[in-house]
Specification:
mainly alpha, three-stranded mixed β-sheet, binds zinc ion, globular
Length: about 625
């Protein structure tokens, strides 16, 4: 579900709606700007010359870097480091450019004369500084070491040979067991197998902490977590307070879901004594972040309906959904260059199985890396990843400079993807596609429950466990001999989940999560994206479609496409808070999400009557 961000380009921090003008007198007093242009040229023009030059090189190096990353993720050959070496070199070249002391100094100098620049120029210059802080060439050896360590960590993670009963298995295989197996012992074995990758990543992760912190400190950030939060125009404390707020807003509902799950799963697994906390291996997901497989909504067997369609159909159908909203067809290169399906049996290389969407050249070359199989999960994931792809395609336009071709903030990118995933799963939409019979009677409450087990259970994991652990890890110097201990403390506190048995420091369970290794200190993006997604969906349902938010059909509705395109078009050149307020009429909050699940809360309270609450 992640997009690849090579640089973490800055969202707009200081956007204001009025365009500032340059006067010739003020320009004449500024000698410090780009050396290539005479001082008599207005600052605005000088800045533009610098930005144009910078952007050209940036795009070129970005593309090379993305191309080699793509190769590294789609063709992993054990013992062959050709791709890894090429990736390292490309990333080093990119880092040397974005972090160059000269570029950083230039951007700073121009920003000192902000009042003479256009807002768009200011935004781009800030993006340059943000990118520079990740790779400052004031400390070239540290940056080089960090890039090397990141590449090695990724290789270890994705090249890992997961084994179950002495046989190699994929993470898809392990996930399938956790989703459907009723035998608790078999579940435990699959869960344990999924955690075996952790210990081998410990040394690399500790090294990365030090390198990541050191890198951003040289540009004045306290630590890597603080740096990442700054992309939203927020301090670390503000971000953590916001995460706390989201956890609290959703806590009453989560408490009901937690109680419900303990009793229902104990019943399903034939366990008489209902545990106070959920054993991690009971849940249908390796980290307990998504429990939706617990519930099968009668009348909708999407897996069965999708199986005969084949994997290719899922991707083509995803595209049809977007074109029905008025978006263009995917470029032909999307199909020829993407890696969309599982590798053929017996392939002599591996690929990254984590779904992602790529904007290779910040222009027309968009690709997705997936392992699509014809089932409900990949159906939703395909719609999600295509959301990223269409976001890329939409802000690739003449009004948005290369440096601002990213989401309004990082969470928006995820929100658009997840919004389309949600919309694609609603009943009237499924009926439109003939995946279910229009007259199928479905249990509304069970449908809502299934959605809550996906969206709501995710918040304590993302806004709680992941965000707090990484905050502790990067900003509070979490001791190396307490990494696993802290992880499970947080799991218990936020998710009410405990390990099957004591998990000492000989394990490293947080490192089994991809993002901890290669997308560090920004997992709150996903929590924020869910909140934004419900705000957008609530608005679309109520104000555009005039439909119940629980049963919408976006298909073919050009007005919905227009609403989304307005949000997507400016990329990071618009202010994200202002945009949310302008488009939905409200500030960021979980209000819409809580309201969406309100009917379920009453139902669960009824179900849980007489049951023991433990969180
Ligand atoms: Zn995503």
């Amino acid at each position: 579900m992640k997009k690849i961000i090579l640089t973490g380009l800055s969202a707009t921090l200081l956007f204001s709606s009025c365009q500032k003008t340059t006067t010739s007198t003020s320009a004449a007093t500024t000698e410090t700007a780009a050396a290539v242009t005479p001082a008599s040229v207005p600052v605005q023009q000088q800045a533009q010359v610098f930005l144009d030059q910078y952007s050209r090189t940036y795009q070129d190096l970005y593309t090379r870097s993305a191309e080699s990353e793509w190769a590294s993720n789609t063709k992993i050959v054990e013992g062959d480091s050709t791709n890894a070496v090429a990736t390292r070199k490309a990333n080093e070249a990119f880092a040397a450019f974005t972090g160059s002391a000269e570029n950083i100094a230039q951007a700073k100098t121009f920003l000192e004369q902000k009042d003479q620049l256009t807002d768009l120029q200011v935004n781009q210059l800030e993006a340059i500084l943000y990118a520079g802080a990740n790779n400052p060439q004031i400390i070239p050896d540290v940056v080089k070491a960090r890039i090397k360590a990141e590449t090695e960590q990724t290789e270890k993670l994705y090249g890992f040979d997961y084994r179950l009963y002495q046989k190699s298995v994929s993470t898809n295989d392990l996930d399938n067991i956790l989703k459907s197996e009723k035998n608790v012992k078999k579940r435990l074995e699959a869960w344990q197998a999924s955690k075996e990758v952790g210990p081998g990543l410990k040394e690399g992760l500790l090294n990365l902490r030090q390198l990541r912190n050191q890198t951003v400190k040289s540009l004045g950030y306290d630590d890597y977590f603080t740096y990442q939060a700054s992309d939203y125009g927020m301090t670390r404390d503000e971000m953590m307070a916001l995460m706390q707020q989201l956890n609290e807003e959703l806590r009453p509902l989560y408490r009901e879901l937690h109680t419900y799950a303990r009793y229902e799963l104990a019943k399903q697994y034939g366990v008489k004594q209902v545990p106070d906390y959920l054993p991690a291996h009971w849940l249908p997901n390796r980290w307990g972040q998504d429990w939706s497989a617990m519930v099968e909504v009668k009348g909708i067997d999407l897996d069965a309906a999708l199986k005969p369609k084949g994997a290719e159909w899922l991707v083509q159908q995803g595209e049809r959904f977007y074109t029905s909203l008025g978006f263009p067809a995917l470029p032909q290169t999307f199909y020829t260059k993407s890696s969309l399906y599982p590798l053929p049996e017996g392939a002599n290389y591996k690929k990254n199985n984590h779904a992602s969407a790529w904007h290779i050249d910040l222009d027309k070359d968009v690709r997705s890396l997936m392992s699509v199989e014809p089932n409900a999960e990949w159906y939703e994931t395909t719609h999600h990843e295509l959301g990223h792809i269409y976001y890329y395609m939409t802000y690739t336009n003449p009004d948005v400079p290369v440096l601002l071709r990213s989401g309004a903030n990082r969470a928006y990118h995820e929100a658009i993807g997840s919004l389309m995933g949600l919309a694609a799963m609603q009943k009237p939409f499924l009926a439109e596609l003939n995946l279910i019979d229009r007259n199928t009677q479905t249990d509304q409450v069970q449908t809502l429950l299934k959605e809550a087990l996906s969206y709501v259970t995710f918040i304590p994991f993302s806004a709680g466990v992941m965000s707090e652990w990484e905050n502790d890890f990067y900003a509070n110097n979490l001791p190396a001999d307490q990494l696993n201990k802290r992880w499970w403390e947080l799991s218990k506190k936020y998710q009410g989940i405990v390990p099957p048995a004591e998990r000492g420091e000989n394990y490293l369970d947080p490192a089994t999560k991809t993002h901890i290794n290669d997308d560090a200190a920004q997992y709150y993006d996903y929590a924020l994206s869910y909140v934004i997604l419900f705000q957008l969906h609530d608005h679309i349902a109520k104000n555009i479609l005039h439909q119940d938010p629980h049963a919408t059909n976006y298909y073919g509705k050009k007005e919905v496409g227009d609403f989304l395109r307005d949000i997507m078009y400016p990329g990071a050149s618009a202010d994200w808070r202002q945009m949310l307020k302008d488009k939905t009429g409200e500030e960021l909050s979980a209000r819409a999400m809580v309201a969406y699940f309100q009917p379920l809360l009453e139902y669960l309270k009824e179900q849980n009557k007489g049951r023991k609450y433990t969180i």
